[in-house]
Specification:
2 domains, 7-stranded mixed β-sheet, two-stranded antiparallel ribbon, 2 helices
């Protein structure tokens, strides 16, 4: 169905609805690419992921130590201390948590970057056992 809609009230210039939809679609795609590339340009280049168990927490200094448990990683069985800041996201399941919710013995997956010789945690996901329904009980 080829319907035409008038843009101006005089009826002199008309645009097909399909052409208008294509123009809107192309604009949305272009803006999406711009936003994606802008985010990549601002994101730290040296972002890494680590999976392990929390072996120490310093609530005053806002740091915690993780013993790596990834058998495929060369960092397996090594301990790393991470600092946190106001930009660090802490999650468990789909719930937002805070640094106070991180405890010794917790299994975590985190992304981090190195800044001036210090490891900074960007995002911390507190893992729950696969058989536990902790995500749904709350």
């Amino acid at each position: 169905m080829n319907s035409e809609k008038t843009i101006s009230g005089s009826g002199k210039r008309s645009v097909k609805t399909a052409d208008l939809m294509v123009a809107v679609f192309v604009t949305v795609v272009a803006v999406s690419f711009i936003v994606a590339f802008a985010y990549a340009a601002v994101a730290p280049e040296n972002t890494h992921t680590l999976k392990g168990e929390v072996v120490a927490v310093d609530k005053i200094a806002h740091t915690f130590t993780v013993k790596s448990s990834d058998p495929l990683s060369r960092e397996s069985d090594r301990e790393f201390t991470f600092a946190t800041d106001e930009g660090t996201n802490v999650n468990m399941c789909t719930m937002n948590k805070s640094f106070r919710d991180i405890g010794i013995g917790e299994k975590v997956t985190l992304t981090y970057h190195k800044e001036q010789g210090e490891l900074i945690a960007d995002a911390i996901n507190i893992d729950v056992p696969t058989l536990a329904f902790a995500c749904y009980d709350q």
